[in-house]
Amino acid sequence: MDIFSKIAAGEIPSYKCAENEEFYAFLDINPLVKGHTLVIPRREVDYIFDMEDDEIGRYQQFAKKVAVAIKTAFPCVKVAEVVLGLEVPHAHIHLIPMQSEADVDFKREKLSLPAEEMKQIADKIYAEFVK
Ligand code: AMP
Question: If you average pLDDT over residues 73-95, what whole number do you get?
Answer without folding.
Answer: 97
